[in-house]
């Protein structure tokens, strides 16, 4: 499922009049792709190269000259060269004086060098205007049309006029420039394409730890305990039965952990009596990766659904049901129908289905293209109201699952309760606290604090009664 | 799953040269967030405040002055103040004369005031150019980077030059301005962020009504009837069995209701002999919320699939199957295999799976980012051809489900047929009418009408033979 | 699920000052919709019509004049007329001299005429500046607001100034212009909206052929063979059992075919010792439609999952299980529990679930809006690492499914092995080759080739040690 393009328009053109001449230093893959793209959009391209004679595969119509000759042809020079080879530019300082140098380089590691490539370039050629841009788009995306890949191009530079010119060029080749400020931003821009899901790290470690803990816990209770006590070989439960206990537990706990930081923040604000003090860093970071935690929870819930639905086609389940039937048949004893069991079993399953359905809804609305379509009020309605509803339904599902067995002493093995009992602690506590927080008296105070009121401030009265800013 | 940002680039910069100075009135949350964002994008910010000394948490580098001092520093003044506190602006009319006032305020309710905030502002300060903008983006989205939240900013104003300037600023901070015309549009722009899924209201009420009706219908047939006749307690069916009857029925009916207005419109156009007369309002509204109705139908179909797949793990089903087996085992009687039952059961299930698969395809192509990738012809192919195929397959699924029992008198209880029989009325009627409409002779007339031909027009001949406009 | 709009802002405005006057030739649906939209965005519109008196349903405030009168009112004339009726323009050459003509026409078939409509127009009116634009957006999308439908507008033209003006107009009505170069691109732009999933054709034919082959193969083995040998009527297997063999096989083969071209390309590059030679055309095309092949594979996998999950509610399966139980019950013989069967069955199912889960993840990340959010490194990580993991898990799933029966002679029928054995050939071969390719010694050479090194080049040494361009 690599990204492809149904709608690339690889237009070969030789327009009679050209927009302007742009110089590209370097005839590597990236230089060539960019040159071709800009040719198609009407620019006249001059390549600068070490060996102008040897360069091949260049877009037809583009000139190839030596570096200094090429630089003289244009105001704007795009550097498609690795940072390690920037030093030859020092020989060209005269030619490059007053020109716009566009640094598009990337490094191999985050913070590989003390300063960013663009700042290093600005030191090498102090007379030039350095603009950082285009490092987030790949040669491949340029070649195959820009409709599919991300079209956001971060741009930064100290001189706003030259930055504006570079942004115009970027816009004219079908990409979306995004001004990120001065060259001090270059470091962040250069690190961006090297990141590997930075916001996912904490949620992934968290869920891995939870999975591991509950897996071991269940192995102890369901494999080791029966082996020690009855010499039963239950190892086959590791494949499906135990994952199908671990996944729903982790899903429920992660879902609760999505809403926990909001509640903690509310308590902190109530305690401090103001919203104008920063939250501790761990809470800030936690709040920023709530979406990722929620999506992981959805993944575990999805696995739980699949693991549950395959139950009837498992060999073990079929064998057990058949033997039960055979035993009863040989005893010629029919099972009486137990309405309350039917109710418990059905409502437990129905709650699970509804919870999963709401969960999927939440997941769909967190797709970027869907969340872009809704306004702020709708987004908050879905993520907050619907999210809590999901949590309530899923918690109820787990509670009803326990049914009569819940905390009965029979279920203890080596004093360990069922794993799902542990899983219920956080969601139940969270729901109780949330319920307290939405009691009218507390909710009113919280709303006032969030509108800017401060309990300890001498100006609080005026802030409340006077002009309140948005 | 709150919206977060993996790619916020919170750039602190102190660029040597600034773009231009912008003044923000009000140092509340929104004012500060906007100011910080604009600082990062190279603007020089001056805040206007009641108490310039007391303002805290402002972006470093920003000045805070009194309102009138601040207003003198810039051409453009962004009002981050609630409408209720606009009156102090009347004292500043001299200073504000000829300046651009950007109204970013929102109200708490739709149509809270007789005129929009922006128009009210224009009345208060007649000498200023009022532009409405930025009310749809939240302080939170500004703070955390604009990549994830909706970046569409509606802008309106009477003076196009000043509006253009505001749009340039919006574009430069990474948002997408959308010109909505003169200040008369301000009312709609202000109502936009207060809406809560306006297009979903009718579809939701409709499906709730259908669910309620069929739920009661099924309760009467499957819970009350057996209780009255045989004193059986079937209440446990309310949890799963009855929802699993109601959901597929509602899904099928809603799917048919997606395509019904198109057929009604075609009949109307055939009857009137022209496409140049407006449809009645109810039909217009119905056609506008077809996507929502279809998505709700998909939701019910999804629930139906889950409710069906859990059947074998229900206590009731296991109990019934076991008892059946035990009875036969004690009678030592094996069941003969019935090929036609196998065919009926399998083809009913296979049709259901295919129908659901097509339905999911329809749902995926209606995701905004997917529908953006296809051209108009492809979109119509998917939504029309694939949509009707889905309807045909789902209707066939329901018909085969009935199988031999369909309309047999045995199935009547208190003269009430099975619920699925009622559900089939609309889809079957729709498919018959659609079939008639695509007969060549009728289809030809319809196509001519849709290309602009009018039956009763004296100019129809010329329109057909002469120059036809697009 | 037709596309609708919750957020259309149908603004009726009579702004005191207008941006500029634009002339539209043709008062058909498209002309009117475009006119209305431009009116709303502040333009003053003059329509040109054959019968200015007869035109109806035009936006209020718009003038309707004869063609030549209308043309004199504005610099920019948008032609909302079919190509067949362009000839009247030759009479207006004097008036049209020096004006900008925007050609928005579409044809009914791809390459219907020898030259594009825009080039034909440029020949008819040589003195005018012809710009091709707006042909990809429908009248309907214009009417109902541009937030939902694709907002990308391809623009081309020989004169860059006039092209720029048209692009500004397009941007001001809320659409995103995309410069495609000179008028030679008009042909491709005109063909674009007529395409019907061009990239999907090969994948669809491929999977249809695979389905057909394996369907026939399975019918021979599972329906015809038992009929010939035992006179059993197994035709009912055609509805579910056989599709549920065919779909997973096709899914696995298609998934392998997604990654095969990459491996072939690597071998070709290793053999040639350079990356600077074009791949054969078939390989190029294959690589471009990998995403489509992968999505089809996901579709088949989804069907396989559904077909598998309904197994326990099928009449045939229930009948078989019941009879097995009855037979054993009458013999009063209980089945001993077989741990290795439980392990095989459970691990086979668990692998299938994990494989499907990873597959769904791949599918979600290939949604345009999701892939837009990740940077290049993340995208490659997901599509390459995660993709191969999916392939490994799914292949293992199939291998374990075979279990002990794999290639046992008992399973041969008319010398035909089980279908899944055939399905395993390509994935297993692919995984073996891939494993060889990632051995350090080979991987190193390949990486060097992909960084630009050439084995046979006299310059290879310099390219490696000297300055390497990006």
Automatic annotation (TrEMBL), chains A, B, C:
<dbReference type="GO" id="GO:0006826">
    <property type="term" value="P:iron ion transport"/>
</dbReference>
<dbReference type="GO" id="GO:0046872">
    <property type="term" value="F:metal ion binding"/>
</dbReference>
<dbReference type="GO" id="GO:0008823">
    <property type="term" value="F:cupric reductase (NADH) activity"/>
</dbReference>
<feature type="domain" description="Pyrroline-5-carboxylate reductase catalytic N-terminal">
    <location>
        <begin position="21"/>
        <end position="107"/>
    </location>
</feature>
<feature type="transmembrane region" description="Helical">
    <location>
        <begin position="247"/>
        <end position="271"/>
    </location>
</feature>
<dbReference type="Pfam" id="PF01794">
    <property type="entry name" value="Ferric_reduct"/>
</dbReference>
<dbReference type="GO" id="GO:0010008">
    <property type="term" value="C:endosome membrane"/>
</dbReference>
<keyword id="KW-0813">Transport</keyword>
<feature type="transmembrane region" description="Helical">
    <location>
        <begin position="348"/>
        <end position="374"/>
    </location>
</feature>
<dbReference type="GO" id="GO:0005886">
    <property type="term" value="C:plasma membrane"/>
</dbReference>
<protein>
    <submittedName>
        <fullName>Metalloreductase STEAP4</fullName>
    </submittedName>
</protein>
<keyword id="KW-0408">Iron</keyword>
<dbReference type="InterPro" id="IPR013130">
    <property type="entry name" value="Fe3_Rdtase_TM_dom"/>
</dbReference>
<feature type="transmembrane region" description="Helical">
    <location>
        <begin position="292"/>
        <end position="317"/>
    </location>
</feature>
<feature type="domain" description="Ferric oxidoreductase">
    <location>
        <begin position="249"/>
        <end position="393"/>
    </location>
</feature>
<keyword id="KW-0186">Copper</keyword>
<keyword id="KW-0285">Flavoprotein</keyword>
<feature type="transmembrane region" description="Helical">
    <location>
        <begin position="419"/>
        <end position="442"/>
    </location>
</feature>
<keyword id="KW-0410">Iron transport</keyword>
<dbReference type="InterPro" id="IPR036291">
    <property type="entry name" value="NAD(P)-bd_dom_sf"/>
</dbReference>
<dbReference type="GO" id="GO:0015677">
    <property type="term" value="P:copper ion import"/>
</dbReference>
<feature type="transmembrane region" description="Helical">
    <location>
        <begin position="386"/>
        <end position="407"/>
    </location>
</feature>
<dbReference type="GO" id="GO:0052851">
    <property type="term" value="F:ferric-chelate reductase (NADPH) activity"/>
</dbReference>
<keyword id="KW-0406">Ion transport</keyword>
<dbReference type="Pfam" id="PF03807">
    <property type="entry name" value="F420_oxidored"/>
</dbReference>
<keyword id="KW-0967">Endosome</keyword>
<comment type="similarity">
    <text>Belongs to the STEAP family.</text>
</comment>
<keyword id="KW-0274">FAD</keyword>
<keyword id="KW-0812">Transmembrane</keyword>
<keyword id="KW-0479">Metal-binding</keyword>
<keyword id="KW-0472">Membrane</keyword>
<dbReference type="InterPro" id="IPR051267">
    <property type="entry name" value="STEAP_metalloreductase"/>
</dbReference>
<keyword id="KW-0560">Oxidoreductase</keyword>
<keyword id="KW-1133">Transmembrane helix</keyword>
<feature type="transmembrane region" description="Helical">
    <location>
        <begin position="204"/>
        <end position="227"/>
    </location>
</feature>
<dbReference type="InterPro" id="IPR028939">
    <property type="entry name" value="P5C_Rdtase_cat_N"/>
</dbReference>
């Amino acid at each position: 499922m690599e990204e492809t393009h149904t709608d690339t328009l690889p237009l070969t053109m030789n327009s009679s009049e050209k927009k302007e001449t742009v110089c590209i230093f370097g005839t590597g893959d990236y230089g060539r792709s960019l040159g071709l793209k800009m040719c198609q959009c009407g620019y006249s391209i001059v390549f600068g190269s070490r060996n102008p004679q040897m360069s091949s595969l260049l877009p037809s119509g583009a000139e190839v000259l030596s570096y200094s000759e090429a630089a003289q042809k244009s105001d704007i020079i795009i550097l498609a060269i690795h940072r390690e080879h920037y030093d030859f530019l020092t020989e060209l300082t005269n030619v490059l004086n007053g020109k716009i140098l566009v640094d598009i380089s990337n490094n191999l590691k985050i913070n590989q060098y003390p300063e960013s490539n663009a700042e290093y370039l600005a030191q090498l050629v102090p007379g030039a205007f350095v603009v950082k841009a285009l490092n987030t788009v790949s040669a491949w995306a340029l070649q195959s049309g820009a409709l599919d890949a991300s079209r956001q191009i971060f741009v930064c530079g100290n001189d706003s006029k030259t930055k504006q010119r570079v942004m115009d060029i970027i816009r004219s080749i079908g990409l979306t420039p995004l001004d990120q400020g001065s060259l001090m931003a270059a470091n962040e821009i250069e690190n961006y394409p090297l990141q590997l899901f930075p916001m996912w790290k904490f949620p992934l470690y968290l869920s891995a730890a939870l999975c591991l803990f509950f897996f071991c816990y269940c192995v102890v209770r369901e494999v080791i305990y029966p082996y020690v006590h009855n010499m039963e070989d239950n190892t086959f439960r590791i494949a499906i039965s135990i994952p199908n206990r671990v996944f729903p537990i982790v899903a429920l706990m992660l879902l609760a952990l999505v809403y926990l930081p909001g509640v903690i923040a509310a308590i902190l604000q109530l305690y401090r009596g103001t919203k104008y003090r920063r939250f501790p860093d761990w809470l800030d970071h936690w709040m920023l990766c709530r979406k990722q935690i929620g999506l992981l929870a959805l993944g575990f819930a999805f696995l739980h659904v699949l693991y549950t639905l395959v139950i009837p086609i498992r060999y073990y389940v079929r064998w057990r049901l058949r033997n039960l039937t055979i035993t009863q048949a040989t005893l010629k004893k029919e099972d009486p129908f137990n309405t309350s069991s039917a109710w418990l079993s059905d409502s437990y399953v129905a709650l699970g289905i509804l919870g999963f359905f709401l969960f999927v809804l939440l997941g769909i609305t967190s797709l970027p293209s869907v969340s872009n379509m809704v306004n702020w009020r709708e987004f908050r309605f879905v993520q907050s109201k619907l999210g809590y509803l999901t949590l309530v339904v899923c918690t109820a599902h787990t509670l009803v699952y326990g049914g009569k067995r819940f905390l009965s002493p029979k279920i203890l093995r080596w004093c360990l309760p069922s794993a799902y009992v542990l899983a219920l602690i956080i969601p139940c506590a969270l729901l109780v606290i949330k319920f307290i927080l939405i009691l009218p008296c507390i909710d009113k105070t919280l709303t006032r604090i969030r509108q800017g009121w401060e309990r300890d401030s001498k100006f609080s009265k005026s802030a409340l009664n006077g002009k309140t800013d948005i």
